[in-house]
Amino acid sequence: MLALLLTVAALGAAALFFLQLYRTESRLRTPWTPDRSSRLFAQRPLPPPVEGTFLSSPHYTLPLRTRGRDVVDARGRRFKLASVNWYGASDELMVPGGLDVRHRREIARAVRRLGFNSVRLPYSDEMVATNPPVDARLVAANPDLAGARALDVYVAVVEALTAEGVAVVVNNHITSATWCCGADPCDAGWANDHLPAALCRVRQTEDQWIEHWETVMARLADNPLVIGADLRNEVRGLWGTMPWARWAAAAERAGNRLLRMNPDWLIIVGGTESQNDLTGVATRPVVLDLPDRVVYSAHVYSWSGWGSWGGRYATRSYPSFVQSARKNWAYLVEGDVAPVWVGEFGAPRSPGRGDANYWNNLLRYLKTIDADFGYWALNPRKPRHNETETYALLEDDWVTPVLDYRLKDLTELMRAGTTT
Ligand SMILES: *[C@@H]1O[C@H](CO)[C@@H](O)[C@H](O)[C@H]1NC(C)=O
């Protein structure tokens, strides 16, 4: 009898737990109704970019260095990275998105018109190692690139951006050419030669990773608006097993090799655990042969915080979110220790309440600390199956801005700390 009662009680408790979970998830997915300021923003034309925030403006004197929490120019004037990610080169097709729809010059102009002064441009190691001729259909709107190889297309896109005065941060995103970041352990770090040979389609040693970097950067070393190398996207280990010190040492080896090619590049180092965790910097900073070159990078999404006591960022209050961000990365900014570029974050065009909660907390905090940032992403379409990208800031024509709550906040964030 007692056993039966206990079983019934346990089943009841489990049912309540799942009901509660279901209710919470449904609430997070309930569509968010845009607030008044977002609705007003959508009715007006996009405000023009602030010219003084671009590196091409006469305000700035290259090269860039770091000073405390800021990236600064040769005269000490802060250059805030207001960036957007333009993906595609690191994916299956090995070509930045949109070149089938628009000439790269027009897309570069659209980036500038949105107000972004810099672009994070991901590539895969496989793109560099195989460097295949690209399918002419993928560059249909760029007939001058017909027959070009993947790396030539990549370089042409960089040059189109810098010709518009938009700075570029090159990013090694993933080893095999595919959407990042799946569960494949072969893509979880900068090298995979410690894994069984049969496991990885694309095998890579640390040396090869650095050689690929040198191949890409050799093509860009004379371009002053190529400002930095974001060494590796979302380094991670199985169940949190990537020691920061191991990654920091590899980042130093790669960073020093690149600085021998061009001493003026910023070397960007992401945190471990999918770029969430920069706590190790406090005791083990990245130290390069040349000082004042290291910029750290954090990625912050609505699902970040997963598995922690405080829960995912979609569910957290503002104080709880700030506490987590501060512990993971923002202590470096608030303590004026080193710059942290929030190199990826983003939300869908039609957010649920959880997305909106995350977004509002994050953007409020980024404005408060006047952060360097890189929104994910520009692209209206994903490379696979030409799927719609709900995080896009451009419509399918690759030039028309999506005027909603995201661009409203990004526009405000771009202007945070400026007097113009
Ligand atoms: C993807 O869809 C867009 C919008 O319909 C279209 O302009 C583009 O040509 C498509 N690309 C491919 C490769 O199908």
Topology:
Elements: H1 2-29, H2 36-43, E1 65-67, E2 70-72, E3 82-85, H3 104-114, E4 118-124, H4 125-130, H5 150-163, E5 167-174, H6 206-218, E6 226-230, H7 244-261, E7 266-270, H8 272-275, E8 294-299, H9 318-334, E9 340-344, H10 353-369, E10 372-375, H11 405-415
Parallel strand pairs: 3-4, 3-10, 4-5, 5-6, 6-7, 7-8, 8-9, 9-10
Antiparallel strand pairs: 1-2
The structure holds 2-acetamido-2-deoxy-beta-D-glucopyranose.
GO molecular function, one term: hydrolase activity, hydrolyzing O-glycosyl compounds
Family: Belongs to the glycosyl hydrolase 5 (cellulase A) family.
Protein name: Glycoside hydrolase family 5 protein
Describe this protein with a few key phrases.
420 residues; alpha/beta; TIM Barrel; 11 helices; glycosidase; Glycoside hydrolase family 5 protein; Glyco_hydro_5; GH; hydrolase
